[in-house]
Structures are given as C-alpha cells and as structure tokens.
C-alpha cells in the first residue's frame, strides 16, 4: 500500500466512532470463557473418508508440542504470492 498526500486525513464522525465502539464491545462480549475452548486433542481422530491422513496429523501435532516443527517461510510466501496472482488473473 502506498501512502501519499492526495487524500487528506479525516477524523471519524460521531456515528462512526459509536459504531466502532459497539463493534469492539460486541467482540469483547463474544470472547470465549474458561472451559469453552476446543483443542485439537478433543477433536476425534477417526476419519473414515480417507481424506485426512490422521497419522500425519498426529506427527505434526507431536512436532508442534515438542517445538521441533520447521516451517519453510519462503515456500509459504511464494504460495501466498501465487494465490494473489491467480486471484488477480481471474478478474
């Protein structure tokens, strides 16, 4: 995103500020309470469809818990860039 001087900075109007406050209050009221969260260990690991390699999921889960999961951030970035290019080409 390029920042330039072509559009002056404006302050939100009273209505915009009120709506923004309501939005924040709404988000705060929907926060989860203790005991209401679901962790991966609570999700059933059986999958009869064969779409999910549960052994691989368990290996990844174990690697995360042991802190030995290595991510190729360059590959992730390349994938994101390619996704954006694909979306722009669809226009």
Automatic annotation (TrEMBL):
One biological process term in Gene Ontology: negative regulation of DNA-templated transcription
Domain of life (superkingdom): Bacteria
InterPro entries linked: Anti-sigma-28_factor_FlgM_sf, FlgM, FlgM_C
Cross-referenced Pfam families: FlgM (PF04316)
Residue ranges annotated for the Anti-sigma-28 factor FlgM C-terminal domain, each copy included: 41-82
Biased composition (Low complexity): 29-41
Disordered: region residues: 1-54
Keywords: Bacterial flagellum biogenesis, Cell projection, Cilium, Flagellum, Repressor, Transcription, Transcription regulation
Compositional bias per record (Polar residues), positions renumbered to this chain: 1-17
NCBIfam families named in the record: FlgM_jcvi
Functional summary from the UniProt entry: Responsible for the coupling of flagellin expression to flagellar assembly by preventing expression of the flagellin genes when a component of the middle class of proteins is defective. It negatively regulates flagellar genes by inhibiting the activity of FliA by directly binding to FliA.
Family classification: Belongs to the FlgM family.
Descriptive protein name: Negative regulator of flagellin synthesis
Source organism per UniProt: Salinicola corii
High-level lineage: Bacteria, Pseudomonadati, Pseudomonadota, Gammaproteobacteria, Oceanospirillales
């Amino acid at each position: 995103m390029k920042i330039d001087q072509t559009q002056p900075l404006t302050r939100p109007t009273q209505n915009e500020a009120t709506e923004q406050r309501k939005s924040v209050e709404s988000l705060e009221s929907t926060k989860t309470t203790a005991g209401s969260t679901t962790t991966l260990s609570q999700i059933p690991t059986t999958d009869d469809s064969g779409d999910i390699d549960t052994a691989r999921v368990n290996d990844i889960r174990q690697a995360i818990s042991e802190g030995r999961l290595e991510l190729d951030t360059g590959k992730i970035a390349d994938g994101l860039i390619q996704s954006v290019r694909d979306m722009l080409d669809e226009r």
